[in-house]
Every structure is written in structure tokens, then in C-alpha cells.
Design brief:
The complex is a heterodimer of chains A (87) and B (250). Chain A has 87 residues and is mainly beta. Chain A is 9% helix and 40% strand. Chain A has a 5-stranded antiparallel beta sheet with strand order 1-4-5-6-7, with no helix packed on it. In chain A, strands 3-2-8 form a 3-stranded antiparallel beta sheet, with no helix packed on it. The chains are: A mainly beta (87), B alpha/beta (250).
Chain lengths: 87, 250
């Protein structure tokens, strides 16, 4: 993993907002692989791939992938154990 | 009921260009008037969407540079060579043009006075944009949060907002700015002239005992370096927030 290519969870603020219907980057999520709990804004986001690949900032496991498809975006939840929603 | 249901949804809004400011050779600030804008916090960004005649769409995110107020959104955009969106925004947009915009977006890399301080801002290149919104939001505030900004740029000419920063450091009693110019310096330069390192950050940022709230923004390598040094200096991870800028197709 080249640390010079990734952005962070701030870059997927609008994708998360589309998914959850509210601002999510400051909401905590738990990585299913290592159990680390961090705000989504801290995640590593790789936008050079054919889609957006979101990795845990602690262990690097792919937790979410979003790929453009003809009529929108296909989102794959790979290793998000849980996400907190604000009131 | 219907309003509440769509409260969090980001709808595309039509934005009209009302002002253009050349900030540096390839960098321009574009000020939009956005009817329906709900307001924003310093650190938030917007999505911009361009649609070609054949229906092809390109979308990019840009940080908001201005303080909240009067339905205006200012973006400072650097033209990325061979980019798809930024050269158009920087070179071709004229006052009166309309584009699509949605936001505000972001809740993690966001500062508001209630989050307290002192505030330590560390900017690499155009990473200064969202941090400038934090500085600007304190103009005219009676009890401004003590703020220090370290701005790294390649040269004085490439340092965006330089006149305003100079003025703010005089006008705002609680604001200090330190520069480092990494490639070339004007004659008689007394600021730093190297890339950030532990000595530079240790000497120019708030001491650990002041427990600053730190926001770091810039290219990925710059942000990684700055965040690692702040941790080495002994600052608490929970008090350091980062945002990485990437070209991502420009």
C-alpha cells in the first residue's frame, strides 16, 4: 500500500450521505477485521481504482467498495461491522 | 413530513459565478451565488458537476474557502494539468456562468467555535483552502479562538491568500501565521525555507501543554508527515484531524 496515493473518508462524504441520508464522516464505524472504531472520515480511501475503495485506517482491510454502474453506483459492504447514525 | 424526510439529502443546486479572483499562476477563487444554500461550516466541501452536451458528466469535490454568509460559496481551484474539470473551472468560467453544485458535505474535518482551541492549522499548498475558511470565520468575532497557521508553499508567488494572511496576522490579535517556502524564496526572506520536519513544527506550532486542536490539510505525503510529527511531539491523536487532497483526475 503506497501511502502517497490514498485520500481519506472526507473524500466520500457525499457517497456516504447518499447512502445514509445524512452527514456521516464524523460518525463512528467498526472494522469487522480488527475491531478498530474510528470516525468514517479517518478511513483510507483509494480513488485511483475503478471505483472508490475504502480501507480501515488501522489494519488496511477493505471495508467498503463503490463502483460506478450504468445507472448509478454499486456499493459493496465488505467489512463494516457496524456504523453509528446520528439522531 | 416530506421536508423532514429529505432533510439530509444532498440535492443539486444551480450556482451562478459572481466573482473570479486570480490567487496564483494556476489558481483561481470562484465565488458562486447559490439560491437555496443552507449555509456551511469551515472545513466543509461541495461537489461540482459538469455536464457535456452529449450527457457525459464529471464530478469533483472542492473545499469551501469562505466563511458562511449571504448564500455565497467560494471555491479556490488549482488547475491540474490534463485534468478533466479543474482547467475548465480555472480558465474558462466567466461571471454569469451557471454550474451544478451540492453540499455542504463533511462533519469530520470541520471546526466551529464551540469546539474550542487553541487552533493549530497546518497547510500544504492548496490544503490551505478549508483552513482559510476557519480563519475567515473568526473575522469580526469578539472572542476569537487563538489560532496559529503554518502554511507551506513552493514559493511566495504560489502561496494563495498571501495578502489576506499578512493583513489578518495584523488585524486579528489572536492569529499568528508562519510560512515555509520550500523551493524558492524572495530576497530578504526571513521565514522558513524547507519542507516540514520535527524542528520546524516543534518551533512554530502550539506547545503540547496548550493542547491545541490541530487541522492538517494538503497532499497525502504532506499530511502523513505532519500528522506523524505532531504525534511524535506528543499531541493526542484525538486532537488531530486530517484531510488529504488528491488530484483524482483534476
Amino acid at each position: 500500500m503506497n501511502s502517497d496515493t490514498h485520500l481519506d473518508g472526507n473524500a466520500i462524504g457525499s457517497l456516504l450521505s447518499d447512502l445514509f441520508g445524512r452527514e456521516m464522516t464524523n460518525q463512528r464505524a467498526c472494522c469487522d477485521a480488527c475491531g478498530a472504531i474510528n470516525p468514517l472520515g479517518m478511513a483510507r480511501v483509494y480513488v485511483d481504482a475503478p471505483g472508490d475503495v475504502v480501507r480501515c485506517s488501522n489494519c488496511g482491510t477493505v471495508v467498503l467498495v463503490a463502483v460506478a454502474v450504468p445507472n448509478g453506483v454499486r456499493v459493496s459492504f465488505r467489512a463494516l461491522r457496524w456504523v453509528e447514525l446520528p439522531d | 413530513m416530506e421536508r423532514a424526510a429529505v432533510r439530509g439529502r444532498l440535492n443539486w443546486l444551480e450556482a451562478e459565478v459572481v466573482e473570479l479572483v486570480q490567487e496564483a499562476p494556476r489558481v483561481k477563487t470562484i465565488v458562486f451565488e447559490v439560491p437555496g444554500w443552507i449555509g456551511h461550516l469551515p472545513g466543509q466541501h461541495v461537489d461540482i458537476r459538469l455536464t457535456a452536451e452529449d450527457g457525459y458528466q464529471a464530478q469533483r469535490s472542492y473545499s469551501i474557502a469562505n466563511a458562511n454568509g449571504s448564500k455565497r460559496v467560494a471555491l479556490t481551484v488549482e488547475a491540474v494539468e490534463n485534468g478533466e474539470v479543474s482547467p475548465y473551472l480555472v480558465s474558462e468560467l466567466v461571471v454569469g456562468d451557471r454550474i451544478e453544485l451540492r453540499g455542504p458535505i463533511g462533519g469530520y474535518f470541520v471546526w466551529e467555535p464551540s469546539k474550542g482551541g487553541p487552533l493549530q492549522l497546518i497547510a500544504g499548498g492548496s490544503g490551505l483552502v478549508p483552513l482559510m475558511a476557519m480563519v475567515r470565520s473568526q473575522t469580526g468575532v469578539s472572542a476569537a479562538t487563538p489560532t496559529r497557521l503554518l502554511a507551506s508553499a513552493r514559493s511566495w508567488e504560489e502561496l494563495i491568500y498571501r495578502d489576506e494572511l499578512e493583513k489578518s496576522s495584523v488585524d486579528l490579535g489572536s492569529f499568528e501565521v508562519v510560512y515555509t517556502l520550500t523551493r524558492s524564496q524572495p530576497p530578504g526572506w526571513t521565514g522558513y525555507s524547507r519542507r516540514i520536519d520535527q524542528d520546524l513544527l516543534g518551533d512554530s506550532t502550539w506547545p503540547i501543554e496548550d493542547k491545541p486542536l490541530t487541522f492538517i490539510c494538503g497532499p497525502t505525503g504532506f499530511v502523513e508527515t505532519a500528522a506523524a510529527i505532531m504525534l511524535e511531539l506528543g499531541h493526542q491523536p484525538g486532537r488531530i484531524k486530517t484531510e488529504r487532497f488528491g488530484p483524482s483526475g483534476g
